[in-house]
Each structure stands twice: as structure tokens, then as C-alpha cells.
Amino acid sequence: MNFTGIIIGAASFLIIGILHPVVIQAEYHFGKGIWPIFLAGGLACILASVFVASVIPAVLLAVLGFSLLWSIRERYEQE
Fold it and tell me: Does 79 have pLDDT greater than 70?
């Protein structure tokens, strides 16, 4: 049996679920100016995913990276 898809799906679900309150708290404590941190973190994770040889960690880094980029948009929608 191959559990790769289930692992990636569950981890993606957790990443997205965890980032939602992180965005809310970051905006509350630091205001609008926090978006460059999310941008840098997102781009770093996406770049790192290119260099990781294993499929699951590479995919999860990419999901985290794109979720961090999406968090920038979410932060402005919360306003």
C-alpha cells in the first residue's frame, strides 16, 4: 500500500490549519508590516523544495511556501 498521498494530504491540511491562526496573531501583534516575513519564508520554502530529493518533504516544503504566500493575501483580507 502507498500512503504518500494520505500523508501529503493530512500534512497539507495541518499546515493550512495552523497558518490561519498564525496570520491572525501576526496581524494582531505586528500589524500590516509583517507581510515581508511571510514573503521571505514562502520564497525560501519554495526554493528549498527544489533542492530536496525526497518527494514528501519536497512537496510539504512547497505547500508550506505557497501557504505562506497565500497568507499575505489573507492578512489583507482580515483588515
Answer: no
Q: Where are the alpha helices (DSSP H) in 1-79?
A: 4-30, 35-51, 55-78
- Vertex 66: Cα angle to 24 and 63 (nearest 5): 105
What is the Cα–Cα distance from 74 to 79, expressed in whole angstroms?
Answer: 9
Which triple of cell numbers denotes residue 24?
A: 491572525
Residue 35: name the closest of 61, 79, 68, 77 by CA. Answer: 68
- Does this model's pTM top 0.85? My answer is yes
Element (H, E) at 32: none
Q: What is the Cα 12 distance to its own chain's centre?
A: 9
